[in-house]
């Protein structure tokens, strides 16, 4: 009897302890995002579209955004799935982001994951001919837009006690010497990933980034079935969007909860040891 009483007291004592941490259980990979809702900015093409497809197959509800309503409607028709919805969002208009958070929440009831895959490239990388207007165009979307996007969705997660994930799609260019606004914006994005990770972790929000190398997307003029050869890395091939999506899925799932503030290079070495 005395032994039973001691055991009960021990259990009660453990239950009163605030710092009890349960062992995480890894779930079936095919259902790893079950019950989650993700907003994927730039989800109408390339890497963002591949991430949207991957998340959907992993049990996630998905909200894709783009700046072109017609293009987005065509993408939604291809999905033909009630768990995929869309909304227009322009990274160049941060004043609209709080309203966009409310719109996203209204579609599925909550948002657990934010993926920012939106961005633009420099049209003129000649340093000596770079205009102020072109510099501002790139930085306003790639860095300023990302900053205020994370602020809006991060505030929503914090205020609603959502232990969410924020994933930024950077670039291997953000780890190489930079003089173009595109490269500089990705350097800034990588630094912001670390800063936001530290700021938001106490609220249970995990922030990371993925830095792809040159990726086979229409942005580079590459279509499905084209030759993937390139001289951009030691493997002599382009990264495939599905490869980036697989890492994205892991990072926003419970499997990625101990990876915090990292910029994961999916680049065949570019930006890691292959610096050009």
Radius of gyration: 21 Å
What portion of residues is helical? 25-40%
Looking at CATH, the homologous superfamily is: NAD(P)-binding Rossmann-like Domain
What is the CATH architecture annotation? 3-Layer(aba) Sandwich
Strand content: 5-15%
List keywords for this structure.
globular; Rossmann fold; 276 residues; 39% helix; alpha/beta
Verbal overview:
There is one protein chain. This protein has 276 residues and is an alpha/beta fold. It has a single domain, classed as Rossmann fold (3-Layer(aba) Sandwich), CATH 3.40.50.720. The protein is built from seven helices and seven strands, in the order αβαβαβαβαβαβαβ. Strands 3-2-1-4-5-6-7 form a seven-stranded parallel β-sheet, sandwiched between helices. Strand 4, helix 5 and strand 5 form a beta-alpha-beta unit. Helix 5 runs parallel beside helix 6. The longest helix has 28 residues. The radius of gyration is 21 Å and the shape is globular. The termini are far apart.
List the topology elements.
Blueprint: H1 2-16, E1 37-41, H2 46-57, E2 61-66, H3 69-79, E3 84-88, H4 97-108, E4 113-116, H5 132-159, E5 165-169, H6 181-200, E6 206-212, H7 241-251, E7 263-266
Parallel strand pairs: 1-2, 1-4, 2-3, 4-5, 5-6, 6-7
Summarize the structure.
The protein is α/β, with parallel strands linked by helices and 276 residues long. The protein is 39% helix and 13% strand. It has a seven-stranded parallel β-sheet with strand order 3-2-1-4-5-6-7, with helices on both faces.
């Amino acid at each position: 009897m005395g032994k039973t009483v001691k055991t009960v007291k021990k259990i009660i004592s453990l239950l009163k302890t605030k710092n009890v941490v349960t062992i995480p259980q890894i779930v079936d990979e095919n259902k790893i995002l079950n019950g989650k809702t993700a907003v994927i900015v730039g989800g109408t093409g390339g890497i963002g579209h591949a991430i949207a497809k991957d998340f959907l197959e992993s049990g996630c509800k998905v909200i894709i955004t783009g700046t072109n309503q017609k293009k987005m409607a065509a993408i939604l028709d291809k999905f033909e799935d009630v768990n995929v919805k869309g909304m227009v969002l322009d990274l160049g208009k941060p004043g609209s982001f709080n309203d966009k958070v409310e719109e996203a929440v209204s579609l599925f009831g909550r948002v657990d994951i934010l993926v920012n895959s939106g961005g633009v490239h420099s049209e003129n990388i000649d340093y000596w001919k770079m205009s102020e207007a072109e510099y501002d165009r790139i930085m306003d979307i790639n860095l300023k837009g990302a900053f205020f996007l994370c602020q809006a969705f991060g505030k929503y997660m914090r205020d609603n006690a959502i232990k969410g994930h924020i994933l930024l799609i950077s670039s291997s260019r953000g780890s190489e010497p930079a003089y173009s606004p595109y490269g500089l914006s990705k350097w800034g994005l990588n630094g912001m990933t670390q800063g936001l990770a530290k700021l938001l972790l106490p609220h249970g929000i995990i922030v990371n980034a993925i830095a792809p190398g040159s990726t086979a997307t229409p942005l580079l003029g590459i279509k499905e079935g084209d030759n993937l050869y390139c001289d951009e890395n030691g493997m002599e091939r382009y990264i495939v969007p599905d490869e980036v999506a697989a890492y994205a899925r892991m990072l926003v799932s419970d499997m990625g909860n101990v990876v915090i503030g990292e910029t994961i290079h999916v680049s065949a070495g570019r930006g890691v040891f292959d610096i050009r």
